[in-house]
Amino acid sequence: MTAGRRWLSSAATSPSAMYASLVETRAVRRDPRQEAVLPRLDRLHAELNGYIAHRYRKPLSPIAPKRGFAASLMSLLRQSDEPAAVERAPKGLYIYGSPGTGKTLLMDMLYDCASVKHKRRVHFNSFMVNVHERIHRWRLSRDTDAADPIPPLAHGIGAEAHLLCFDEFQVTDVADAMIIRRLFDVLFEHGIVVVATSNRAPNELYKNGLQRELFVPFIDQLAQRCDVVNLDTDVDYRTVGAQLTGTYFQPDNVEQRRAFLSAFETVTHNAAPEKRDIPVGQGRTLHVRCCVRDYAAIAREFHTVFLDGVPHFSIESRNVMRRFIVLVDELYQRKVRLVCLAAALPTELFQRSDNQAYDEGFAFDRCVSRLIEMQSKEYIVAGDLARKKRS
């Protein structure tokens, strides 16, 4: 059974107590690899109790305007205290491993238990979309592009969240890579604590990427600021015990197409389709769906998406494949129902090649795992509960 966030409760005193409760109620299955991470989660949970990043702490008392010897000495001490404060910031966590191994579950337990007033939990794709939007707005508000948007952007993000939890941390674009390096330099300097999940180890991030040598300092910084945990296991818990529903039709033949269209008519009550424009930000409306922001808009707008004609993917259709993976990621994060008419089973959609990029292998596996989970009764119920909570 897949443990969605509906089972998590901040009433638990610690991540390990929450995990024990989930095991006892059979919401999750006990896993030795997951249990081995619990002491680290508990340690960080204790260190985060009431945590305020040093950059945003208010002074205990006003500074006297007189600047004699004592005032000068205090000023010097304050200046020298900032680097030390960074070192005293709790060390975060970077949990990586294969899809479906429980990385997100562990991070969410920590997030829900953490006694931090300002905290944020976000999918990394969505976070980067928001970063680009903030940069865009910042530049529109200025007369020149000469100034650097990263320091004020990082300060604003840090003010909103002293604990940042990222699901599915990944870097595939050179522009993102350069922004991430500089942005996180400032966040770490401000004392922001980072917890992240990923399908790959830190030293595998942005592997073979353009100008990767400029990104490598971020990897070193990440290793200093976060404990790195490998959660690889042979079991994909998204697919264990899943009760599958009729939301995935294959192969794409006359019989399956008839069933697919019948499902569509049932959901829509035979209503005629209507064309709709969806605002996606930066003054745009959605006509051609081709990027993360567009797919995120679809996921926010609809509770069910019907996708016709999902093909086999190969190295020749790499761009189409990437867009499909991003769409599945966005729908999954919002717990949107996905009804597919596809050429084959999820495990047979992706034709691997020796020429495929390193990151694509991880993306394949994650997408297959999610496509299977999205067919489950548990996923459908989780989506219904999430929508009721948002409404």
TrEMBL record:
Gene3D superfamilies: P-loop containing nucleotide triphosphate hydrolases. Keywords: ATP-binding, Mitochondrion, Nucleotide-binding. GO terms for molecular function: ATP binding; ATP hydrolysis activity. Coiled coil: none annotated. Belongs to the AFG1 ATPase family. PANTHER family: AFG1-LIKE ATPASE, ATPASE N2B. This is AAA+ ATPase domain-containing protein. It comes from Plasmodiophora brassicae.
